[in-house]
Design a protein that fits this description.
The chain has 8 helices and 30 strands. The relative contact order is 0.15. The protein has an 11-stranded antiparallel β-sheet. The longest helix has 12 residues. The protein has 3 domains: 196 residues, outer membrane lipoprotein receptor (LolB), chain A (Clam); 91 residues, Fusion Protein Consisting Of Minor Coat Protein, Glycine Rich Linker, Tola, And A His Tag, Chain: A, Domain 2; 85 residues, TolA/TonB C-terminal domain (2-Layer Sandwich), CATH 3.30.2420.10. β28 and β29 form a beta hairpin. With 451 residues, the protein is mainly β. The chain is globular and about 65 Å long.
Length: 451
């Protein structure tokens, strides 16, 4: 490939609307290194060494808390408790505002008892991260090899893979996955499931992540495992009285053709003019409908002009849909919906380009200047170690514009991490050749031996 030729990398790049963008990079700045592992090989290693429900795994009792990192006072928080004995014997309890959901699986089948009218995507993301962290579309891919990129500062990225996933009667959706260098799972981006895995610690013969971060669609959620132990005799797996076999909040993926049949009327959008960008193309959406047929969440996965995403979302939320059902029981459904657009350029149009959101691994590839944090003397004297997790907004010139604390092993480490990261410099992110603001997660590790 000639120097200066643009390459497009779709892996793990999302904007605040949930849009997966294509990032145009200069090939002369990012050297691509093939990795001998196939996606299936790396997935098998990650599952064997860290997945709690992998074949042959020991029983466990787990408790996780999940909260909105940007607003601790919001109603977006939940507790997840799970007792797992085997794939055919387990119990999960989800408690959140206006939601209490109990699922039991035993030799007689599945039993569900639920109060509440909707299971939000962000809760389902953390359930997936616990029980099925790597979907089959990744696990079964023997053809695709992992790749690593070298940043302008010479740092080699974690091994990653990007791919397009096809679903029944639906357009292909972009997806990506990254592993740590020991092939434990680091990040995954999949329709309806975006997660970063951190703070691995031993549990039996496995290394299990204890901190989970979901950053996408303008939201940032933190999940932390507060308890992970062997089940005791009191941790029984018993179906609650009055439980039913069909889960009304269990989400089923349906094809685009089915979704169109559920729509009450035509699925059409009145496209507004835009000040710049493409005037024709497509936008790919991921929709979640509750068991009454109401659209509750919309995520844009890909777009030929991101300025049109908000207008389309607003109109899709107002559309009416018939509820889907199984054996007469209404259920939640998700679907992929691709909408073609035709619009025109109007320099006075008010639509704006949404800020981007990228994965931590993608940010590392673009890091040009990295100031190493100083180990705080008080923390060193007290042998305080651990990680500080920061949310950062990078401006169009690659400088840190905003910085906030997501989580920290100790307050003694936080100020040092923020002082150093504020001085970091990145290669600007481009969309269609235009520099763009992006947000990301930055992890700063403190280990006395390493300093």
């Amino acid at each position: 490939m000639p120097l200066g030729t643009d390459i497009k990398i779709a892996a793990m790049l999302r904007n605040s609307a949930g849009l997966l963008l294509l990032l145009s990079l200069s090939a002369c700045l990012f050297a691509e290194t093939p990795n001998p592992k196939t996606l299936a090989d790396a997935s098998a290693i990650a599952i064997q060494h860290s997945a709690l429900t992998a074949p042959g795994s020991h029983p466990f009792h787990l408790k996780m808390t999940v909260h909105d990192a940007f607003d601790r006072n919001s109603d977006r928080h939940a507790e997840i408790e799970e007792v797992w004995v085997s794939p055919t014997q387990w119990k999960r309890v989800i408690t959140a505002p206006n939601l209490n959901h109990v699922t039991v699986v035993d030799t007689a089948g599945r039993h569900v008892e639920s109060t509440g009218d909707y299971m939000p995507i962000w809760i389902k993301e953390f359930i997936t991260a616990i029980d099925d962290p790597i979907p089959a579309a990744f696990r079964d891919n023997q053809q695709l090899h992992l790749k690593q990129l070298t940043s302008p500062s010479g740092e080699l990225s974690n091994p990653c893979a990007s791919l397009s996933l096809g679903f029944s009667n639906s357009p292909a959706a972009p997806a990506g996955i990254c592993f740590y260098n020991n092939y434990l799972l680091h990040e995954i981006n999949y329709p309806g499931y975006v997660m970063e895995f951190n703070e691995f610690a031993p549990f039996g013969d496995k290394d299990v992540p204890r901190l989970f971060i979901s950053q996408a669609h303008g939201l940032l959620f933190i999940g932390r495992i507060n308890l992970l132990e062997r089940p005791s005799k009191k941790d029984t797996v018993v179906a609650p009285p009055g439980a039913q076999a069909i889960d009304p909040l269990g989400s089923t993926m349906v094809g685009t053709d089915t979704a169109k049949r559920l729509a009450k009327g035509s699925i059409s959008v009145d496209w507004p003019p835009v000040p710049s960008g493409q005037t024709s193309g497509n936008i790919l959406f991921y929709l979640s409908l509750d068991n009454t047929g109401q659209v509750r969440e919309i995520q844009a996965l890909d777009s030929d002009n991101p300025r049109l995403v908000d207008a389309a979302r607003d109109q899709l939320l107002k559309m009416k849909w018939a509820p889907a059902g199984v054996k007469g029981t209404p259920i939640q459904v998700t679907t992929l919906l691709q909408l073609p657009f035709e619009t025109k350029i109007d320099p006075t149009a008010l639509s704006k380009m949404p800020d981007g959101s990228i994965s931590e691994n993608e940010a590392k590839v673009h890091l040009m200047t990295q100031v190493v944090p100083k180990y705080p003397p008080q923390a060193r004297a007290q042998h305080v170690e651990g990680s500080v997790y920061l949310s950062a907004q990078i401006d169009e010139k690659g400088a840190i514009e905003k910085l906030g604390v997501i989580d920290s092993a100790s307050s003694l480490l936080t100020d040092s991490a923020m002082e150093a990261v504020r001085q970091w410099k990145y290669k600007p992110y481009l969309f269609n050749g235009v520099p763009q603001k992006v947000s990301t997660v930055i992890t700063v590790h403190y280990n006395i031996v390493g300093y």
